[in-house]
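Internal ticket - ligand job 438, beta-D-galactopyranuronic acid:
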Amino acid sequence: MRPRAPFLAVALVAAMTTIPPRSAAAQPGPDGFNYDESKVGTYTLPELLVGPDGAAVTTPEGWRTAARPRWLALLEAEAYGRILEPVPVTAEAVERGTGPDGMRRVQARLRLGHGPDAPTTEVLLYLPAADAVPTDHRLPTFLHLNFGGNHAETADPAVRLPRGWVPNGKDTGVTDNTAREASRGTLARRWPVARLVGRGYATATASYADLFPDRADGRPASVLPGMGYAATDAEARPDEPGAIATWAWQLSRILDWLVTLPEIDPRRVIVVGHSRLGKTALWAGAGDERFAMVVSNESGCGGAALERRDFGETVKRITTAFPHWFCPRYAGWADRAAEMPFDQHVLLAMTAPRPLYVASAAEDLWADPRGEFLAAVAAEPAWRLFGRAGLGTDAFPAPDTPVGHSIGYHVRSGAHDIVEWDWERFADFADRALAPRP
Ligand code: GTR
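stdout (structure tokens):
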């Protein structure tokens, strides 16, 4: 009789190839973390409307002059590190062409600072066709950093490849940290350019790896040593900026260039980010009030999600897995979330009174959707000081049902990602929140 093992092995392989991938709901994140709402426990958030002396803040003026600066300084010292100073920005190697569907395409290499050794970031911008908008019309603009390089975000064959380090990735097929032609368009689902441009927006992107390679030993290879900051982690001071602060600086420098373009409305540039880049978008909007609106997509721990809620990713885990994202002092809050002098509602409130949109995904339990929503609820008093309605509800909404006024929120069905449906909701919100007022 023939042994049965080979048949079994073949049957098993066949079965494995036809089993659909396990959904994120069945596998919410790494083992050993809480995904059970009944085990979250109780917590008390730090009072938002207070100044440095602990006195209550009750007016917009008090927010601007006392509460906001106090919280911003604390977030710099304890979480993200010092905000980096601006430098002169020069556009080089500017290409203007026609992209898909007649859109105008602009590519520019921005030199940040003086001299041939100053770092550069490569920006890709799409605008509606010239005959699609009235002359002199200035466009509201979505700006986001991307993970795979500009060429991965669109199938447009003219888009230039990054010259430096890029992360390896399943989607892009990169395995040696080097950008490749074969990645072109592999992440296009994350940036629905034609839809945004069709709705009357300009939209720009750049690779997040241009200035700080996203790896634990990235600091020496980042722009920070050249800007007078520590060359090694060992030399880094407790409030030394990390990768998130550097990426936020990149966004501000791109904004410096965008606002010089006659097509762009300098008062309607919206910063968007997904996941670690959602944390970055929030921090960029906190430090740079020229961003007219901020969008956090599934930013989770260190982003929109409350740390005092024990659900999904924790400060301990994030500072162990990604020590380079934050300032060194942040790791000191691992396992001590209840003692933190701030929580993430404070980060969200840094956008007030500008419009803020927070987005979650139902299966993305690692990022704690409910914790992201509750942070937005807790941030609302900052908008109310300005007579704005904020979120306007404390009831966690059903999936795919956007809510809110000056703060928008949705929890999309599905897994951790940023997709066209999310962007459409950001644009719906921006249409309302940034509509030119008479
Ligand atoms: C995860 C990390 C999250 C989130 C995510 C991402 O590994 O734990 O905080 O930022 O990466 O950026 O995709």
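Auto-summary: Residues 89-264 form one domain. The longest helix spans residues 60-80.
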